[in-house]
Amino acid sequence: MSKTTIKSGFFSFRSLAIVVATAVGVCAPAAAWANSKYAAIVIDARTGQTLYSSSADEARFPASLTKMMTLYLTFEALAAGKINKSSPVTYSAKAAAESPTKLGVRAGGSVSVETAILSLVTRSANDSATALGEMLAGSEQNFARAMTAKARSLGMAGTVFQNAHGLPNPAQKTTARDMAKLGIALREHFPQYYAYFSTRSFKYGKQTIPNHNRLLGRVKGVDGIKTGYTRASGFNLVSSVSEGNRRIVAVVMGGTSGAARDNQMADLIAAYLPKASTSGGGALIARSGAGTATAAIASVMLPHRNVPTPDSRPGSVEAVLAQAPMPVAPVRRPAKSVPTAEAVIQAYAAPVSEESVDPVSTGSIPTGWSVQVASSPSAAEAQALLDATNRQASAVLASAAGYTVPFVKDGVTYYRARFGGFSSKDAAWNACTALKKQKIACYATQQ
């Protein structure tokens, strides 16, 4: 059978169920997808028609799908000439301290805008996301307000952003439909930059950094866009697919594993791409026009020079913040009163409770094969072990991404310290063998 459908080893009742579901026009999720985190949608990117929908308008955590909006605003700044691909992106202490996965630039260091973009697309680098947000808006908090305002202008009514990377925040919400709209907007509005999303890997120093999106090269026609994971969100994926004159954007959120999410996405593509229209092609997602609140915020917040720094504060935004679209959760205020700048700021800066989100140390976990080097009841200790191992065996792990995975045993939460992104079992086993030669205990495992 084709790789874009179920694996050939799954016969009998599961195959029959999929055939029956397709016959009635519904690609029903397998039992593993019957969970409160799951949501999915497939949209014909030529006509805007919804071909499949499951909980597509219910609130979900975006995780690293957040970086799609970070990239949208970066592309917007590039297109407007406010920055260029060679402009330096300086990493503040805050950016450098973000949890992995990250590029690993030290505080005060810098990379080009293009390198930062590639690190978001492939490794889903949290440090690069924060650094870009600080460069474009002076602070990540300002950038989050601009992200939410842009979401409103694109018709993403169910989305609120609180940060540039997607690490856990209980107030950062979206929907599968909104993520599909953003995926369509990225292609429609910035075709000159869209090819970044199909990058399979890129070189950074001595590292070759692979793309976390395992459907690139596996499913015909897939040309991006973005993966995401936190424990609170489950495994997320937005895919853009083109074949002949047909084009769709599909979203799967809340997957129980990277492999399950990828297989579900492959099944949706196989079922619904043939049903997409071969005509149409007009713009589906309107750009925000000049004079809107979003345009006003962008004009104030984006520096009008080519070499911005994260410490720059390009003007006051209070005058335009009062016009910004309000978040999903309304601000308490007297009836018929006009929202003040302070009220808007407070609404977008909702406090984060550690108990309200699940612990996670990465915004995007690689799928495929990984090498585990430690397990600890302390998230900080697990991260420290990752950092120490990376320093000791940097050559062995040059193409790998470190991350932690929480699990519960006898009522206690532990954290597995792993390096992922290996393309095969042999690659992971070879890396582990090399680590053992340096007296680093490890074993290879499939994510």
Automatic annotation (TrEMBL):
Annotated protein name in UniProt: D-alanyl-D-alanine carboxypeptidase
Position of the signal peptide: 1-23
Organism for this UniProt entry: Oryzicola mucosus
PANTHER family (UniProt xref): D-ALANYL-D-ALANINE CARBOXYPEPTIDASE (PTHR21581), TRAFFICKING PROTEIN PARTICLE COMPLEX SUBUNIT 12 (PTHR21581:SF6)
Biological process annotations from GO: cell wall organization; peptidoglycan biosynthetic process; proteolysis; regulation of cell shape
InterPro entries on file: Beta-lactam/transpept-like, Peptidase_S11, Peptidase_S11_N, SPOR-like_dom, SPOR-like_sf
GO MF annotations in UniProt: peptidoglycan binding; serine-type D-Ala-D-Ala carboxypeptidase activity
Lineage: Bacteria, Pseudomonadati, Pseudomonadota, Alphaproteobacteria, Hyphomicrobiales
Stored PROSITE patterns: SPOR (PS51724)
Residue span(s) of domain SPOR: 363-447
Family designation: Belongs to the peptidase S11 family.
Pfam families: Peptidase_S11, SPOR
Keywords from the named record: Carboxypeptidase, Cell shape, Cell wall biogenesis/degradation, Hydrolase, Peptidoglycan synthesis, Protease, Signal
Residues binding substrate, per UniProt: K226
Residues the record marks as active site: S64 (acyl-ester intermediate), K67 (proton acceptor), S124
